[in-house]
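User: Could you check the structure of this?
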Amino acid sequence: MKSFKYLTAYIIPALAVWGLLQGGWASFATVGFAFGIVPVLEMLLPQSTKNLPADQQQDLLGERIFDWLLYLNVPIVYSIVGLYIYQLNTQVYTTGEWVGQLLAVGIVLGSCGINVGHELGHRTRPFERFLSKALLLPCLYQHFFIEHNRGHHKNVATPLDPATARRGEILYTFWFRSLWGSYRSAWRIERDTLRQQGLPWLSFHNEMIRFSMQQAIYIGLVFLLTPDWQSALAVLLAGLVGVLLLESINYVEHYGLQRQLLPNGRYERVMPHHSWNANYQLGRIMLYELTRHSDHHYLANKKYQVLEHHEAAPVLPLGYPGCILLAMVPPLWFYVMDRELAKVSGVNG
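Assistant: Sure, the predicted structure tokens are below.
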């Protein structure tokens, strides 16, 4: 029964399909739900800091339904991309419909694609890691698999991490720094790994080269299957929307938090207070507990269904959608979050 609540995560792809088929104002149904209805409900509904007892956690870890809820996102993501391409081939859209449906598909690629790919990327089974890379492909963001697991989790809340937003850094400049820095970091990590293994950098052993080839093939298929370059661009831009959604979440998850540099030249261990938490129940279940981010960074391989609340973790003033909207207006974001940072650091705001 505890798994049924995660069916809520399928509301976003269901609305996207409805918008693609219906057109008109329904094209914006996904955007309206994700960034209109959800933020309002999260402000009205109570938060939950309750953690499951250890015996219940063990029971949930043994239930495969929680894994299948993730796996189902693979056919969902590719079916929606396929439907989007079909509609672009067969329908004539107004500018409003074009924008609304592009954003809808992008939100699906971010929430059901990158987000679920992130969860599966932390697993050890080859099958699940394959699904992770497949979910990252439509956003041309497969390097995330390398940089997030072997870079971000190691360097989070330090100047070494491109995906950690610094205090006073606006969202829009962070996008560019994180996008370029993460991509460059993935190449560096793969180079160093191959060097340690005594393998050549310029070879198929290099996963970044394989990712580049797979993504080039995907781009080629998109141009082949769409009627014109504008339609192909729409499919690729939807992927970019998914990426910017992910990077916006990165921005709010770690904004301004820092680990201390120890006398030995290393940074202190990642602890729950190095990530912002959000206990808004709707956002938690729709993003497979991503918002319990403090516990995820504290124990990176912990499955989503048993992530816990930590009292030491700083708490966001709004859920993820609300915080993203707030971050899009930098003066408001700084006004709210710099006060929250002062509380975290023990300084009066």
